[in-house]
Structure to design on (234 residues):
């Protein structure tokens, strides 16, 4: 079965740290980008970060730059999100997703979309 | 960052209705846009990629269109399982950005 499973969420005080994990199974993990998306309670989706197949390229939303680090270990089919200097506003469900690239031969263009999602892990930042 | 503005924010409709949700980008994004459906307590599900390509396994009543800055998601005949929140996501610029969501409710 193709799936992603997140773990590592929990309750942490402001200024604290957490490391989230996302483990893939059922597909060739090392071929694709992986993305983290979060959703604050009662709010919409927010794109957080993504990482290239070999880890050589990483992108972040401005609000987490310098505090969060995305990494991966293809031998373990895993992607991680190290979250430091956590703030109350980082409270959310964190989802990982496979960032699949579709190739259109007719145009020669590539398109990305998040085609497989984990169930999410809850991060609560509170004193 | 690119702003993605969805409209309406919420929508009441009946089973069998045709509904359209709009997403507007603050800058042109070619057709690098995807649509997602999310039900309460669940992960989002990919419906449409590249603005108009239907993801495998998604019913044909879902369709997408648009290019540049204006995009639409259309559900041709609402089914009970379609009542959910829908999001667009631009995949052209970093950081990627979602629309704020459209909650589709039963009338």
């Amino acid at each position: 079965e193709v799936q992603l499973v997140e773990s590592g969420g929990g309750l942490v005080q402001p200024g604290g740290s957490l490391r989230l994990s996302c483990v893939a199974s059922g597909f060739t993990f090392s071929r694709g980008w992986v993305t983290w998306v979060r959703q604050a309670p009662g709010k919409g989706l927010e794109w957080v970060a993504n990482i290239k197949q070999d880890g050589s390229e990483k992108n972040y939303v401005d609000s987490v730059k310098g505090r969060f680090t995305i990494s991966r270990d293809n031998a373990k089919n895993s992607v991680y999100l190290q979250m430091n200097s956590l703030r109350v506003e980082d409270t959310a469900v964190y989802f990982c997703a496979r960032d699949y690239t579709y190739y259109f031969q007719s145009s020669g263009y590539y398109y990305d979309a998040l085609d497989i999602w984990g169930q999410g892990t809850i991060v609560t930042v509170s004193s | 960052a690119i702003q993605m503005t969805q409209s309406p924010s919420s929508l009441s409709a009946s089973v069998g209705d045709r509904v359209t949700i709009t997403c507007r980008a603050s800058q042109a994004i070619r057709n690098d846009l995807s649509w997602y459906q999310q039900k309460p307590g669940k992960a989002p599900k990919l419906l449409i990629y590249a603005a108009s390509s239907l993801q495998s396994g998604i019913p044909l009543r879902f369709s997408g269109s648009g290019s540049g800055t204006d995009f639409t998601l259309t559900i041709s005949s609402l089914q009970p399982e379609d009542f959910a929140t829908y999001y667009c996501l631009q995949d052209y610029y970093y950081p990627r950005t979602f629309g704020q969501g459209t909650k589709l409710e039963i009338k």
Summary: Chain A has no helices and eleven strands. The longest strand of chain A covers residues 92-104.
